[in-house]
């Protein structure tokens, strides 16, 4: 992660670094120039000394002592430049030797400068003051360094005050304006009067304003696009809802067509088989009673032969309506085939199922319909699901009970015997064994005759 730092401090540190680099370059140049100035001073001092000595030696009547004194005085006046001076005459062997009393440095072979004098055969040996170069450099360097440090301190104070107060205030104001921009309705940023004179600042503000303008246009275009998309979505949603409604209605119609008998409007055989399988599994899992009624209209073939199939269809519709009203929400009614109906009764044991079958038989016998003047009688076989019994087995027992009812005079209810060793209801066993039939006068057969 990149460390965060203040822009003002960064600018101040950069300015100080550049100033120190410039100061180092200036000091290096100053030292080089000072060195060359010192060399020129030494050469000039050496030439002047040689001229002075030649002048003194050119005086014929001057005694050697006085001559040496004059040269010594001259060297004493210029002792900040010379360390040791000697004058040698190879012929006479006379010599002059002067040592700077302030430094008293010995002769150093590598630093000797010899000059042959033109006016005489003497040789002038000179050794410059070793401290003179260092002294000149450091005396001037100290003054220069002090001036540069003072200038640097003043510059730092001015930059710190001016930049920190003006630039930071302007930057903070600029950042505050950026933070207050309404992104929903962006407006251009106004120029700061104190910074508008700078080209860079105006360029930055110009770029930001162009970005804001582009953002505003983009938001407008996006809003228009969103509105158009919402309209399209609303239109498509309405169209889809309408189609879904149509499909739902069609599915409901298809479900009715697929599961309902077209004539009687009760469940068909396919749907009844599904309901029977589901309720049989539930009853076996939860040990709940489950009964089934198989109902057959008595002498229905005679009705078709005597009155025609249209009347027969009306009889089937009327019978299905009566059975549906009696069963209600307590069971499921289906057209089993031809003139036969089946009724599935969850939570009904054999006794309750027998009572419901008697209710159905009596309601049909007492019912009347304007479309035909006939008495409808039915034969009903009743069976209750036994323990671990399959659907085919209970249907077989109910069908056998129905045949027994038809064989014993029709217009009656017969309960099938339970598959176990013990009967579920004594009355059911009695019904199975004795084949109880009802009196024909109480409920006459369909068509007015007994089988």
From TrEMBL:
It is an enzyme of class 2 (transferase). It holds the Pfam family GGDEF. SMART domains: GGDEF. This is diguanylate cyclase. Residues 288-418 form the GGDEF domain. It comes from Rhodanobacter aciditrophus. InterPro entries: Diguanylate_Cyclase, GGDEF_dom, Nucleotide_cyclase, Rev_trsase/Diguanyl_cyclase. The chain crosses the membrane at residues 12-38, 141-163. CDD domains: GGDEF. The keyword Hydrolase does not apply.
